Amino acid sequence: MTEKIKVCHREELEPDSRKVISVEKGREIGIFNVDGEYYAVENVCPHRGGPVCNGQIQKKIKAEWKGPGNRIEETFSSIPTIACPWHGWEFKLENGEHIGDSKIYVKTYEVVVEDDNVYVIC
Amino acid sequence: MIAITSMAGYYIVDSDAHYLESLPELADYIPDNNPFKQRFKRQPSKMFPSAGYPDHYMYGRIKRDEVGYLRGQTVPEDIPTAMEIVGADVIVVITQKMLAFARLGGDDERPELISNAYADYMLDRILDPKEGIYALLVLPYQDPERAVELIDRCGSEKGFAGACMICGGPEPPFGNRKYDGIYEACQDAKLPLVFHAGGASLDYFYIKGYEKFIETHTLGFLWSNMSQLVSIVIQGVAEKFPGLKIVFQESGILYVSSLMARLDAEYLKRASEAPILTKRPSEYMSNFYYGTQPLDEPKSAEYFKSAIEEMGGASQLLYSSDYPHWDYDPPSAITSIPFLTREEKELILGKNAQRVFGI
């Protein structure tokens, strides 16, 4: 059974901002606006239960290797991730997958905008 | 044709036995116009310090007729005797002197001269694939370009089962791009690359204040291989050179499963620091091969079994004797492991090495 919960007015969730809301039984969900795209993630790291939604967001680092003798070049991809502030476990915001092992994930939710309001479906 | 003569019908490939080369004899293979030729002949102990202080033989209390280098060096005739003592149908011998590579100071020609002389000596005097006698091509990692030249010159010789890099202090460590050319050349030549713990790492701990051989021998070998494994795995050598067969020798095997777990834990916390990896460190490590000597002796067989499963199972293990060193393991070290099946013992004792080294 899913529920549509109002998060805030769209203007209260500007790009590069977030809101962490409480839903039933103390469960928290973080809703993020990254470059105009909305994401929602449960605020519990699957590692030790840390507040993952309080973590820093950056683009996933990608490696490029141009052959023997060259350094591995590191650049940012277009994939936004969030790192749990407790131990650094890092997840893709779009699907919750841990960047080092896709079998590990944090729960994600759909975000919709209706009538200038932001909702999370959970 | 090599007969199956070994214990209980097992075909035995000893993937790591040692050969104490005589530096004055190796110097015969150094060009006459190189001043190091005479230096190696006249002052061998000064030109290549040995490693491993204090005494391996517990001050004379470990005393067996068949161990050690009784003549002060190995001679070609010792190899069939070694095979008979170990019970090996095939033997892969590895340098003794160059285990101390990390103790060589100075940016001079010694590593490349000795590596090349050793290769020529081995070809001239020792290697005999028809009789099951192989060696590894020891690479002068200090000069990667020279190492690649040696691979190009000798890597296709049938008697060289693979190439070898000595752990125990290379700077920078082996994950560095400086060594990429070596990895590429080995991959192209289909030469397995054996990383062998180095005796120089024992001395490192002694110099730092550890007093007893029991301490330095325990830590030195583990540090030697673990430090290079970490570098190789995290810097993505297996990702960059997927066709390269990687072997680690002479630190036992149980350290592998614990290092896997440690690296995986670090990786899950800091995956962005190793962006070239596409899977957990343990998944690369379980594709590497590991020599068994000195075989660990855990109290729990159940723990031993699960640790072997963690590191990829019996298919990843290569029996190695380390003969004629004081703590060499005979094949019975493997056959006596209670939980292994006959088929798994066959893999470890011979079939894996035949597959990995193509012998």
In a few lines, what is going on in this structure?
The complex is a heterodimer of chains A (122) and B (359). With 122 residues, chain A is mostly beta strands.
Question: Can you give a write-up of this model?
Answer:
- The complex is a heterodimer of chains A (122) and B (359).
- Chain A has 122 residues and is mostly beta strands.
- Helices cover 0% and strands 51% of the residues of chain A.
- Chain A has no helices and 9 strands.
- Chain A has strands at 4-9, 17-22, 28-34, 37-42, 56-65, 72-83, 90-92, 108-114, 117-121.
- Chain A is globular, with a radius of gyration of 16 Å.
- By secondary structure, chain B is of the alpha/beta class.
- In chain B, 41% of the residues lie in helices and 11% in strands.
- Chain B is built from 15 helices and 8 strands.
- Chain B has helices at 23-27, 36-42, 44-47, 78-86, 110-126, 144-154, 180-188, 200-207, 213-234, 237-240, 254-270, 281-285, 301-310, 332-335, 342-357; strands spanning 13-19, 90-95, 133-138, 160-166, 193-196, 246-249, 289-291, 317-318.
- In chain B, strands 1-2-3-4-5-6-7-8 form an 8-stranded parallel sheet.
- In chain B, α5 links the parallel β2 (90-95) and β3 (133-138).
- Residues 1-5 of chain B have low confidence and may be disordered.
- Classes of the chains: A mainly beta (122), B alpha/beta (359).
- At the A-B interface, β5 and β6 of A face α7 and α11 of B.
